[in-house]
Sequence to fold (461 residues):
Amino acid sequence: MSSEMRAVRDAILSGNARPEDFTSLPLPKTMRAVTTHKDEVRMFEGLDSADKDPRKSLHVDDVPIPEVGPNEALVAVMASCINFNTVWTAIFEPLPTFQFLERHAKRSPWDKRHDLPYHIIGSDGAGVILRTGPGVTLFKPGDEVTIHCNYVDMQSPEGHNDSMLDPDQRIWGFETNFGGLAEIALVRANQLMPKPPHLTWPEAASMPLVNSTAYRMLVSPNAVQIKQGDIVLIWGAVGGLGGFALQYVLNAGAFPICVVSSEERAKLCRTVGARWVIDRKAEDYRFWNPDGTQNIGEIRRFGKKIRELTGGEDPDVVYEHPGRETFAASVFVARPGGKIVTCASTSGYMHEYDNRYLWMNKKRIIGSHFANYREAWEANRLVCKRSIHPLLSEAYPLEQTGEAAYRVHHNLVFGKIGVLCLAPREDLGVRDVDGRARHIGQINLYRNAAKGEFRLVKTEP
Ligand code: NAP
Fold:
């Protein structure tokens, strides 16, 4: 680490530096960042997805710090985290992300900065603002922030009811360069949100992407807007998206049905407060026959299991993201008039389902993608109010980002993995010690589960 970077880090760690201290600190010319390389995008050709190894394609390089432009900020990143898009980038699926950077660069001379032979990845972050460009009003140097990944400047009329509909909307650190897995990130000012003061740096960094996505899918009128009493089937209920969905469903007074793949994960769902849990591995559902056709008998068996748990009711909402493997079952089990809300296709995006179950029963499929600033801000606000809690179970140093991504790729993780960028330790960054103490049981739940401890001590709100 350069001496300039160390001075930035020390100012943050001191906890009492003023805005002018940050603006007067000289920035280093280069920083460490996690990258993929444009000349390696074919390195995994011919391999199955599972054999494409992020540990080989993710590098930690010294790279120049980009110039800050209008309405932008440079943020010293204390921590970031692994998302599934880190995995997609690292295995160059479904496309190498350099195509996104090239497209983005055509938009304006400032956007040209993004088209480089390396891609600094990462779509989450928590840290401190070091510099702001012209036009930034809401935040200033020295502010402690989390970063959400909706990258949009709102010049197109189409985005003004919902910025996710802007034709130039991108996911930062995936479809743009200069993402969060670095010592310094370049963001638009409208990606910034206040850091929840009761959380550590990696806890705060591990939330914005999946929490905001779950909020939009389940709470926002832009997707399902669940209500008291709804039954919500959650695939992967202790994964990144699923772990937040479970909290939103319980907070809403709705009833989750959690689907997970081990007894330990089932225990974690019950500890959080779920009554109905299905261990899909133990049940050994085979929705697909070896010849590639679907097995309706197995899909019906899944539906029967749901009714056994609920006393005969079907889900009002199915929270979908596994995609091809589960989508037909999701459409089948939703109740007449029910909704299937989907934001992903981890197991394959060419879905196949029997449409008769959809149209005859007036079900609806709703597409959802990340969140607009308002939705991300609301999701962050609920964290600040300590009504939604982090899912962090592990944290890795920046140098081991490849290993951390490998664990997510192979579904070896409870909740989320943080990555320490400038933070020297996992436990730093807490400013509201009392607020943290009141919710320490919920905050440490996933960490403890990863150690085999399933116990939730609920404390005073
Ligand atoms: P994650 O942390 O790995 O969790 C996914 C969970 O899904 C796993 O824990 C696993 O749980 C379950 N799962 C995986 N494969 C499955 C299968 N074939 N059948 C049934 N369940 C399966 O990942 P995540 O962060 O939640 O992301 C999930 C997907 O959503 C990824 O494809 C990601 O790229 C996408 N995503 C999209 C958006 C968006 O805005 N569009 C935002 C966030 C994420 P069990 O093994 O315990 O069942």
In short: Residues 83-85, 209-210, 213, 235-236, 239-242, 259-261, 265, 280, 321-322, 325-326, 343-344, 346-347, 369-370, 408, 411 surround NAP (CB under 6 Å). The two ends are 41 Å apart (CA to CA). DSSP finds 18 helices and 18 strands in the chain. Residues 296-310 form the longest helix (15 residues).
